[in-house]
From TrEMBL:
Disordered, as annotated region: 167-195, 594-659
Biased composition (Polar residues): 177-186, 635-646
This protein's name: Kinesin motor domain-containing protein
Biased composition (Acidic residues): 594-606
Keyword hit for rRNA processing: no
Keyword terms: ATP-binding, Motor protein, Nucleotide-binding
GO annotation terms (biological process): microtubule depolymerization; microtubule-based movement
Basic and acidic residues: bias regions: 607-617
Binding-site list for ATP: G343, Q344, T345, G346, S347, G348, K349, T350
InterPro entries (UniProt xref): Kinesin-like_fam, Kinesin_motor_dom, Kinesin_motor_dom_sf, P-loop_NTPase
Family membership: Belongs to the TRAFAC class myosin-kinesin ATPase superfamily. Kinesin family.
Start and end residues of each Kinesin motor domain: 268-547
Length: 718
């Protein structure tokens, strides 16, 4: 088995050093060139006094709450990222690239401008950039004197990036975009300020990819291209900043800086495999050496690729760091996230999942109390299970719940009790209470086996005021799902395979579409007795991972807009073990809906027509009937979706065709695998028949011998 971390691959080729640090106030670079006249005209003369040998004369520019989250050097380039953890985003990205004679580009938002004495630059859009002195006049584009980049080329740009979807509720109104200067800025043979230089282009695509979440903010960007000398100085400055001690009371933010960095790298779907140690198998002496029918032994090697593989020595803390921690800050940035555990009974799903919500809640509360303090955020906790196609509130005496969709096809659980939580102790108690209420049974592999899918929901909401009316506004949700054993369907008191699993899919449907993150913890047992189940689990999650990878590798066939907006929706059937091949198509309608996500209290939702789901063959493949030893509660009655109307506002896209073909591929693989198993079974059957036949023949022979013996005895007269 190969465990391969894909997320580390972004740093590109070459030696890479990464320094993570946080500063609250950072010295920063500005211009030291002889062409500082432009700075003077722009009112930035105070930024002129740099010397190339260091930062000593650099005036300290203040970046409130600004975090330097990453400085990395990947020869021959250098890149750094600053992000403000406050809701008013400040970006500061840069790249130094020797290959382009030192091209540095910086993007910074209005906060920076305001605090760096650049307030007047905020008026760009309102007056058509007229307040900015012409760069051309100051020979900033190299000019015809052969100076080129080395002679102090300057490019500045103010652009509007991204779009502002649902995020507008949490982002201060940004400075309106500035149109690029249209005329008089290009001299012969020199780059126009309205086009990126190669270095900037590279940065542009690279860093946008790194920071998909931030595309949502409307940001004013100011680009500078500096000469090599200045670039080197900036490099040294950045390293100084990276090494600068954090301010004393800044520990909390410091840790969030690391979170921020992780956020940038969180894959849309992350697959982690955790192997549990041997436990009761050792006592039972499970190990048994066997020979194949043809008496030869062999070892078949399987190769899988995952984001991380955690062995039995790995602690729950490390599991948290590897899986959920990076996605916690994301939910403040209008994303949905889901973490679920998958694997056969007794493989450790509950063991893995139990500590994660507690740790995540702790981090969310920390963020609310520090980074997002006084911003009206609340954390709401709820816990329910899906058993036999029905939903039960685990914190409300197993009250039966209803699932509904609102007008935007957003799923809501009607009647679900939400608890406002403000400390970890309270959360711990709620988790314990919920777990104690969960449906459990005993299986051969696990005395306390979960028989249901348990869904723990952390919702971060914030109240906003419109015309003095307080409106509850849903930010996003983080789900923790402890699935029942994969070797049988837990959602399966209903043996109708066409509806099996559908409830889970319905409930989680929103979590996988649009801008979401999913972490799948695949649990496996080390026991040889579990080999087949382990292989099934690994094959399955490998497939999930390759499917998500397939989405990005098939860029050509996918709509580029879809990629840009990070709106690729994984087919739920490919993510969820009890999957279905859904009819739902990924459209912009989903994306908009995801970004908007205006929230009504669940009680306010009008019961709407639910959506029909076509359940595909995969559900069968991964959802065999329940085992008979289940002794848990069996609620009566089922809710089926067979007769429900289809949504009308969903249309097909190229991406869906592509995903459909991937799904089809998956189905083919499953069929091929099934065929293989059938073939093997047939061979075994044949062997068995031969043995039985031989046995019968042997018996017959015995009979003959006995008869002959009797005849002989009789004839001999003894
Ligand atoms: N990493 C681990 N380290 C130590 N013990 C573990 C680990 N993982 C699981 N176990 C133990 O293995 C047993 C089974 O684990 P658990 O109940 O989490 O399995 P499960 O996959 O949730 O099973 P089911 O699907 O039947 O509910 C438990 O006794 C648990 O304490």
């Amino acid at each position: 088995m190969n465990g391969m971390g894909r997320q580390g691959q972004r740093s590109g080729a070459g030696t890479t050093t990464t320094v993570h640090h946080h500063i609250q106030y950072s010295d920063n670079f500005v211009d030291t060139s002889s062409s500082g006249r432009w700075l003077q005209s722009a009112g930035l003369q105070h930024l002129q006094n740099f010397s190339s040998d260091g930062a000593s004369s650099i005036p300290p520019l203040r970046f409130p709450d600004l975090s330097l989250i990453s400085v990395s050097v990947s020869f021959p380039s250098f890149r750094f990222i600053f992000i403000s953890p406050t809701s008013s985003f400040v970006w500061f990205l840069g790249k130094f690239d020797l290959a382009y004679l030192g091209t540095i580009s910086c993007l910074f938002g209005r906060e920076y401008k305001a605090t760096a004495g650049l307030q007047h630059l905020q008026n760009f859009s309102s007056n058509g950039a007229s307040s900015i002195p012409s760069l051309q006049d100051y020979n900033f584009y190299g000019g015809g004197d052969g100076g080129g980049l080395g002679q102090g080329m300057r490019v500045y740009r103010n652009a509007q990036r991204g779009f502002n979807g649902g995020a507008e509720l949490y982002t201060e109104p940004s400075t309106p975009p500035v149109s690029s200067r249209q005329t008089g800025q290009r001299k012969s043979g020199v780059e126009s300020p309205t086009e990126f230089s190669p270095g900037i282009l590279e940065l542009h695509s690279f860093d946008t990819e790194l920071l998909p979440e931030f595309q949502k903010c409307t940001i004013d960007l100011l680009f500078f291209n500096l000469v090599e000398q200045e670039s080197l100085m900036l490099l040294s400055l950045m390293f100084q900043a990276a090494r600068a001690p954090a301010i004393p009371d800044d520990n909390v933010l410091k840790s969030f800086a690391a979170d921020k960095e992780k956020t940038s790298y969180v894959a849309k779907i992350k697959v982690v495999v955790r192997k549990r140690p041997m436990n009761k198998e050792l006592a039972k002496k499970f190990h048994e050496t066997k020979l194949k029918v043809d008496l030869t032994g062999y070892i078949e090697k399987h190769e899988f690729v995952f984001d991380a593989v955690l062995n039995e020595e790995v602690s729950n803390d490390e599991v948290y760091h590897e899986t959920v921690e990076p996605i916690v800050p994301i939910i403040f940035q209008c994303l949905k996230a889901t973490c679920f555990a998958y694997g056969q009974t007794g493989s450790g799903k509950t063991y893995n999942m139990k500590p994660l919500p507690l740790r995540a809640s702790g981090d969310i509360l920390r963020l609310m109390q520090h980074t997002y303090r006084n911003q009206g955020f609340q954390l709401l906790f709820s816990f329910f299970e899906i058993y036999g196609g029905k939903l039960y509130d685990l914190l409300s005496d197993r009250k039966k719940l209803c699932m509904r969709e609102d007008g935007k096809q957003q799923v809501c659980i009607v009647g679900l009790q939400e608890y406002r939580v403000s400390d970890v102790k309270m959360i711990e108690e709620l988790i314990e209470r919920g777990n104690a209420t969960r449906s459990t049974g005993t299986t051969g592999a696990n005395e306390e086996s979960s028989r249901s899918h348990a869904i723990l929901q952390l919702a971060v909401k914030r109240t906003i005021e419109v015309n003095e009316t307080k409106l509850p506004c849903l930010v996003k949700k983080l789900y923790f799902i402890d699935l029942a054993g994969s070797e049988r369907g837990a959602d399966t008191t209903d043996n109708d395979k066409h509806t099996r699993g559908s409830k889970l899919i319905e409930v989680l449907r929103d979590s996988f579409v649009g801008n979401s993150r999913t972490v799948m913890i695949s649990c496996i047992s080390p026991s040889s007795g579990s080999c087949e189940h382990t292989l099934n689990t690994l094959r399955y999650v490998d497939r999930v991972k390759s499917l998500s990878k397939g989405n990005t590798s098939k860029k050509d066939t996918l709509s580029s807009t879809l990629n840009m907006k990070e709106s690729i929706a994984m087919p739920l059937s490919s993510i969820l073990p009890a999957g279905s091949s859904l009819d739902d198509d990924v459209t912009d309608a989903w994306v908009e809906q995801d970004e908007g996500d205006d929230f009504k209290d669940v009680e306010d939702y009008e019961p709407e027509k639910p959506v029909r789901r076509e359940i595909g063959k995969l559900a069968e493949a991964y959802n065999p009937p329940p085992i008979s030893e289940d002794k848990s509660r069996k609620p009566n009655g089922q809710t089926k979706f067979n007769n429900l109307p289809k949504p009308t506002n969903i249309k097909k896209s190229e991406a869906d065709d592509d995903l459909s073909s991937l799904l089809k591929e998956e189905e083919d693989l499953v069929s091929a695998h099934r065929k293989q198993v059938e073939d093997t079974m047939n061979i075994v059957k044949e062997e068995m028949n031969l043995l039985v036949e031989a046995d019968q023949q042997g018996n017959q022979l015995d009979d003959y011998i006995t008869r002959d013996h009797n005849v002989l005895v009789a004839s001999s007269g003894y």
